Every structure is written in structure tokens, then in C-alpha cells.
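Inverse folding, one chain.
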């Protein structure tokens, strides 16, 4: 009977914890690993997301070729649109943009090659996994 009581308490705690988390704003991680195919589309998705749900907490994690959209002077290759003004507008709406430091090392890139809107994370894929698992962020890959 004591064991059943412990399970019941654990169950109630889990329900309360889930309910408390669900009551807050939606939290989303956008995963970008290829600026050419995901950059403009992803930024537009994020803008539209915030237009409909402005309280959403959004973190954009970039790695591999996705980091290119956060480099100084970067433009979309298809139509020549500069990423910086779009990123800056989203940053002003509290979107966080993170660049994978493993990618920097593998591609011989330096932090000063990136816009001031970029933050850095030791590993893009670890950051995405942690946001999903530990922090319960929804995952979107444009």
C-alpha cells in the first residue's frame, strides 16, 4: 500500500509539473543546417509564427551550412536578399540566434565573422537535443 501511495504522489507531481509548463508561453527551437535551402524560408516562418503568437519563445540553432546566414554580409543566393535585416528584426522580437562552435572549428571560421545578433553554443546538435528534452521546446525544421 505504501508503494501505491508513492506512485500516486509521483503521478500527481508529474501532472502538476506538466500543467505548470503548459501554462507558460510556447517554446520552439528552429533548426537550420543549410542557409541556402532553409534561410529565407525559416526566417519568414519565424516572423509568421510571431505574428500569430507573439509571446512564443524562439531559439534558432544553426550548424553546418546553416551558420552562413548569420555571417556578416551574408545574402540568400537565390534572390540576393540580405539576411542581417531579417535576423535583426526577429532579434528585436526576442528571437535568439545561436551558432555551433564545432562548425566554426571544422570550417575554420571565427566569431568576429558573424553579425552581432549571433550568439554561440558549444554544439548545435547537443543544444537542439537539450532544448527538446530538458526544456520541452517544440522542434521545427523549415
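Residues assigned per position:
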Amino acid at each position: 500500500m505504501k508503494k501505491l501511495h508513492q506512485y500516486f504522489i509521483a503521478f500527481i507531481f508529474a501532472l502538476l509539473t506538466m500543467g505548470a509548463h503548459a501554462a507558460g508561453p510556447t517554446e520552439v527551437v528552429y533548426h537550420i543546417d543549410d542557409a541556402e535551402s532553409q534561410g529565407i524560408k525559416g526566417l519568414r516562418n519565424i516572423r509568421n509564427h510571431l505574428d500569430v503568437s507573439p509571446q512564443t519563445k524562439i531559439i534558432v540553432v544553426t550548424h553546418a551550412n546553416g551558420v552562413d546566414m548569420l555571417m556578416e554580409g551574408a545574402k540568400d543566393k537565390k534572390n540576393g536578399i540580405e539576411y542581417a535585416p531579417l535576423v535583426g528584426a526577429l532579434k528585436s522580437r526576442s528571437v535568439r540566434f545561436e551558432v555551433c562552435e564545432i562548425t566554426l572549428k571544422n570550417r575554420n571560421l571565427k566569431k568576429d565573422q558573424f553579425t552581432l545578433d549571433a550568439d554561440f553554443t558549444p554544439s548545435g546538435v547537443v543544444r537542439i537535443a537539450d532544448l527538446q528534452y530538458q526544456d520541452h521546446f517544440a522542434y521545427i525544421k523549415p
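Residues 7-11 have pLDDT under 50 and may be disordered. The beta strands are 27-34, 57-65, 96-100, 118-121, 138-140.
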